[in-house]
Amino acid sequence: MDRSLTEAFSALFSAKLATSVISIVSLPIVVRELGTTGYGDYAFLISSFSLYMILVSSGVTEGVQKFVAEERADDRWHEHVVGFYLRLTLGLGAVGAVVVGAASASGLPDRLLGAPFSYYFALLAVLVVAAQLRAFTRRTLMGLGLERYSEPLRVAAKLTWVGLGLGLAALGLGVDAFLVSNIAGATLLAVVGLAVIARRLSVSAILRGPPDDFPTRELLSFNGLNIVLVLLLLSLFHVDVVMMRLLTDGGQTGQYRAALAIAEYVWFVPLSLQTLLLHSSSRLWAERRFERLTDIASRITRYVWLLVSLMAIGLFVLADAAIPLYFGPEFTDTVGPLLVLLPGTIGFALARPLYAINQGSGRLRTPIVATGGAAAINVVLNAALIPAYGMIGAAAATSVGYGSMFAFHVACARHLGYRPLADLRFPSLVGTAVVAAPVIYAVDAVLVGDYLSLAVVPVAGAVVYTIVAVAFGAVTVDELRSVTGALPAPVGPRLRALLPGSDR
Prior knowledge:
Layout: H1 5-68, H2 77-106, H3 108-113, H4 117-143, H5 147-170, H6 175-200, H7 203-207, H8 216-247, H9 250-264, H10 268-286, H11 290-327, H12 335-360, H13 365-416, H14 426-446, H15 450-472, H16 477-485, H17 491-497
Subcellular location: Cell membrane
Keywords: Cell membrane, Cell shape, Membrane, Peptidoglycan synthesis, Transmembrane, Transmembrane helix
Organism: Halomicrobium mukohataei (strain ATCC 700874 / DSM 12286 / JCM 9738 / NCIMB 13541)
């Protein structure tokens, strides 16, 4: 099962890029179909569902990804791990669905939030099972080194969600259209992915119980601690949305969630790295290769800093033009929260790969403390600022919570034994942003018309930023060649052809 990190990242990056493009194209259509209030209600449902699913699936999915990637003396280790987690998946999924179904049947959602939330909860009960199997299947494929299957299936599930959801919405359905399409997309990935797993592993060995010496306690211990860790992490994503809906209304929640959706586009590379580094770093931790962990973490931190800073500068410059065109003129108020979110978005992007490496150590108490610190800051500030300042308060609170995540996980990494800032080149990174940002802003200022700015500024900004970064020593041309070499065709080859000294 030895394989190149570059090949695995290429598969993950390709899928993340494809799903990001699908989201970018479809999101304004979805928002227009649902309206600000409908989109706010949908965002509330998905955020609440995501927090709930931590209890149902997080101990399973990341556990199977970590442990199935390991090599142990047991000849049927992979089958025994998959079988153990499959039984856990089905049991927890059934319990989770019954709880949500019972809440729906009681009518409590309607009494708290208004009709037809009890109906929405009935659909969420079905989604619990579909999403549970989707997550188990994808994480198993990744742990087995089969990203070439898991990631195209992820794209297919995304296309199913968008295509079917918009089709049902056109027929007159609203929020429920996208809940039904989510169920369909999850089911598609689960069914096809399980078929792939069945061809790679012995089904009979999976269905048999594990041997007496199977380390059940070790796996359950990781599962329990991982539930706490993931709950704390995802609270940073969803608590602000839930609190906005409970403390304000669906319209403001929709505006705020739109700002979050734009800010989260900055994370598509860090999220790909996080997904890859959980199982990849597990092998390095098992071999106690701390210098290799330092090398990987420090280079990734610097590269991510450069990329997300460029994207944040672009969003800052173009937000006034892009948001009304993208979502519609009624979302003009989304610009303010987005600008406030950007500093924290950079910090959270830097934290994501470190979070995965720290998680891969298996020593989860320290990452729990680190993530818990950021989560506590986020909850307290949201509770204090939303009643007084609404969307801007939520954005400020969340930005601080996001940014603190990076500081906490750097401290966590040093405690665990590696140095993620060893090759950061902090003065060069800051100098690059300080010099490039005014130039990019000036390019936008001299252009007439929003459409022209949106077409020219991203390309011109990337060129200016790259030249300044190389001049300041934040990155070398050889490093750029190495990074672009990890990107899939046609993106990687075309970018490499633009670098100095490349064959044309």
